[in-house]
Design a protein that fits this description.
The protein has 420 residues and is mostly helical. It has one domain: Growth Hormone, Chain: A (Up-down Bundle), CATH 1.20.1250.20. It is 82% helix and 0% strand. The radius of gyration is 20 Å and the shape is globular. It starts with a helix and ends with a helix.
Length: 420
């Protein structure tokens, strides 16, 4: 029974500690990301457009996403507990720098460099959390753990975002205060990692220390080996490809909702911030329902089959509700996307963890992270070309629905090939 398995999971001290690190770290992410979003989109001095949003996403995500596979190689060479400890401590310091830049009205490029640095370290922390999970959870409870931990982290990020929105509504000049809150949460997460022994989260064996030139060469070779390892696992490759498409659709619709909140539904002031905050909350409710449904659904449909169901649901409901471009139906779409995207992510996490050997697992999740972010940035770039400033585009809604339908049709065939 899931309830019994959940009790057994929570009895593990190291599992609880890893979960606490995730909750605090992703809660801080939610606070920090909302601070950046509201500073870029809703600050009175900003003239927001789809191109501006796409540029911000590219600056924050793309450079380190392209370098992301190297994080996996390093994760397979470093103690993952240490990555969680020092990574979150470093992000606390970098968040303080961001707050200082906001207060000092620093040039935009300097602000983005600071934010980019926080995002860079985030690549290590999130991939490390996923790669560490099998070391504290037995394989027969891994689906449940993947339902609980990433989803709980996403809910923590949603709660952090909601808290940031609440602070932001106090006034237009509170972005620096919100970033300071994120810094405090990052530091608390780092200290929580100390509850686990340094070697508890793997990897089980560490390669010998070598000089910088040899390390660079080994990193490149390790990256190629990780890519080959993933290519040999058909189930993992299919799940990652489907997740990239779903993430692309999610990114495109996210930009649409941002522009609707900024212009179509409000005058760009506190009303727009409140509507965007509400979209985050209802999407978080979808994440929560995904955690409840996915263990049962994966047992019934298999992970790849559940991804197909999620994509098919989105293919039907996104145009049925989204083409009205009214707040109520579009906020319902946000709930549907939270449910389907998080459900598919839980299934994908499980496939990767079960299909990829532990020695390659850090690289596997780093590549996963690259696909996740590149797909999101690509969606923002494409959306910037077709989306008007008010956020209303029938073509965009229909195109995303078509992509969801393609995934829904393709996944059963991929599942059969993987099983062959």
């Amino acid at each position: 029974m899931p309830a019994r398995d959940l009790r057994l999971l929570l009895r593990s001290r190291d599992f609880r500690s890893l979960l606490a690190v995730r909750l605090l770290s992703q809660g801080a992410d939610g606070v920090y990301q909302v601070a950046l979003a509201t500073h870029v989109v809703f600050s009175p001095e900003q003239q927001t457009s789809p191109v501006a949003i796409a540029s911000a996403m590219a600056v924050l995500l793309l450079p380190y996403s392209l370098l992301g596979p190297f994080t996996g190689v390093l994760l397979d060479r470093w103690r993952r507990r240490q990555v969680l400890l020092f990574g979150n401590a470093l992000r606390a310091v970098l968040a303080l720098v961001t707050a200082a830049l906001i207060t000092g009205a620093a040039p935009g490029w300097l602000f983005y460099v600071s934010a980019l640095s926080v995002t860079a370290v985030n690549r290590f922390v999130l991939a490390g959390l996923s790669a560490a999970l099998p070391h504290v959870v037995h394989g027969d409870r891994l689906v449940l753990a993947n339902s609980l931990t990433p989803t709980a982290g996403t809910l923590a990020a949603t709660a952090g975002g909601g808290l940031a929105f609440a602070v932001r509504l106090i006034g237009p000049d509170t972005d620096a205060l919100v970033v300071l809150l994120a810094a405090a949460l990052y530091l608390t997460s780092a200290l929580t990692a100390l509850r686990m022994a340094p070697g508890r989260l793997g990897p089980r064996t560490l390669p010998p220390r070598r000089g910088p030139a040899v390390a660079v060469r080994d990193t490149a070779c390790g990256l190629m080996a990780g890519a080959r390892h993933l290519a040999e696992r058909r189930a993992a490759g299919s799940a990652l490809g489907a997740m990239a498409v779903l993430r692309f659709c999610y990114g495109a619709l996210t930009v649409m909702v941002l522009m609707l909140c900024r212009y179509a539904w409000s005058d760009g002031t506190s009303q727009g911030v409140a509507l965007l905050g509400l979209a985050v909350v209802v999407s978080g409710a979808g994440y929560f329902l995904a955690a409840v449904l996915t263990p049962w659904a994966v047992a019934r449909h298999t992970p790849l089959g559940w991804i197909a169901v999620c994509a098919g649901t989105a293919a039907v409901l996104v145009p049925a509700l989204g083409l009205s471009f009214a707040p109520g139906p579009v906020l319902t779409v946000a709930f549907v996307l939270g449910l389907t995207t998080q459900s598919a992510k839980i299934a994908t996490d499980t496939v990767v963890q079960l299909s990829v050997d532990d020695a390659f697992r850090g690289r596997g999740f780093a590549l996963y992270d690259v696909l996740f972010n590149v797909a999101f940035v690509a969606a923002a770039g494409v959306t910037a070309l077709v989306l008007p400033s008010n956020g209303i585009s029938v073509a965009l809604v229909l195109a995303t629905a078509l992509l969801y339908a393609v995934v829904a049709v393709a996944m059963p065939r991929c599942a059969r090939r993987a099983a062959a």
